[in-house]
Amino acid sequence: MAFLSIDHVGVAVTDLGVSVPWWTRFLEKEPFMQGTWIAADVEDYVGKIVGYPNCDMSGAFWALPGGAVLEMLQYHNPPPGRVDMATYNAGNTHLCLETEDIHRDYERMRDHAVFVSPEPVRCAWGRYEGALTCYLRDPDDISIELIQFAEGGRPFEVESPFVNPYG
C-alpha cells in the first residue's frame, strides 16, 4: 500500500464561532491553529486545491489521537449550503473516537450535544462484540461515534498491517 497515514479529517461547518467552542469542549482542548484564507491574499491556492475559484475560508485545527488532525472549515465564498446529514444518506461520514470512559463522556456532553443513542450500547456480535458505543451530533448535525473497546482493545489488529496503538 502506498498510503502512509491519515493526515487529517476535514469537515465543513456553518459557523466557526459556534463550532470552535463546541469542539473545544468535546475534545477537551483548544485548536492548535486558526486562520482565514482570502483568495486575493494567498494567490487563490485554496481555490485551486478545492476547485472553487476565489475561495475564501476560515479554519480551525485540533490534534487527534494517533497523530491525525481534525480540520474544521467555514467557507465564506462560495457561501455554504446545507445537506441532509442523516447518517443513512450516501456520502454521510462520521468520526469515531475511542474513549477510556464512555459513560463519563456521555454525561459530560449530555447538555451540549444531541445524542442519537439513548445511552451507550453494548455491541452484541462481530469484531466489536463487547464494546460500548454511541452516536452524537455536533451543532451542524455532524455524526460522531464514541467507542470504548472491550477488554483487549482495538479488535482489528489481525486484519491491519499498521501499528497497534496498544503496543
Layout of helices and strands:
Blueprint: E1 8-12, H1 16-27, E2 33-37, H2 45-50, E3 56-63, E4 69-77, E5 94-98, H3 102-109, E6 114-115, E7 121-122, E8 132-137, E9 143-148
Parallel strand pairs: 1-4, 5-9
Antiparallel strand pairs: 2-3, 3-4, 6-8, 7-8, 8-9
Shape: globular
H/E series = EHEHEEEHEEEE
Q: What's the rounded overall pLDDT mean?
A: 90
Largest sheet: 5 strands, mixed
Distance separating the two termini: 22 Å
Strand tally is 9
Oligomer: single chain
Q: What structural category arises from helix and sheet content?
A: alpha+beta
Explain what the structure shows.
The chain has 167 residues and is of the alpha+beta class. It is built from three helices and nine strands. Strands 5, 6, 7, 8 and 9 form a five-stranded mixed sheet that branches. It has a four-stranded mixed sheet with strand order 1-4-3-2, covered by helices on one side.
Can you tag this structure with a few keywords?
about 170 residues, alpha+beta, four-stranded mixed sheet, 9 strands
What does this entry show, briefly?
With 167 residues, the protein is of the alpha+beta class. The protein has helices at residues 16-27, 45-50, 102-109; strands spanning 8-12, 33-37, 56-63, 69-77, 94-98, 114-115, 121-122, 132-137, 143-148. It is built from 3 helices and 9 strands, in the order E-H-E-H-E-E-E-H-E-E-E-E.
